[in-house]
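Known limitations

Structure tokens in this collection are predictions and should be treated as such. Users comparing against experimental data should check residue numbering before alignment. To illustrate the layout, the record for FHL1 protein is reproduced below. The input appears on top and the generated tokens appear beneath it.
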Amino acid sequence: SQPITSGGLTYQEQPWHSECFICSNCKKQLGGKRFTAVEDQFYCVECYKECVAKKCAGCKNPITAGFGRGTSVVNYEDESWHDYCFKCTKCARGLANKRFVCHNGKIYCAECPKRL
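Generated tokens:
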């Protein structure tokens, strides 16, 4: 709320002191760095991956659409996957945007449950 007399930056048409535009978790300054905003909180890439991002049910790594490989996410029930990790348990066929079957808590392509 104090006047900006020198330096500073603008984010979404709002002025900020450089020292006030910081990561909500680690408090590092974000000016000139990659960051993301979640519910009016700002996070550096590292803190977003560690503290905020959902973890993929397949590879267990953070799902960081826009910060790394792939931008699509598959959500089913209470779990999320990178699109490239959402695969049939038996044949490993990619299932993003395809029909699948859930059997005993595992995901299968439409063909594999017939062979169980």
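For this record: The chain has a mean pLDDT of 89. The longest strand covers residues 35-38. Please report discrepancies through the issue tracker.
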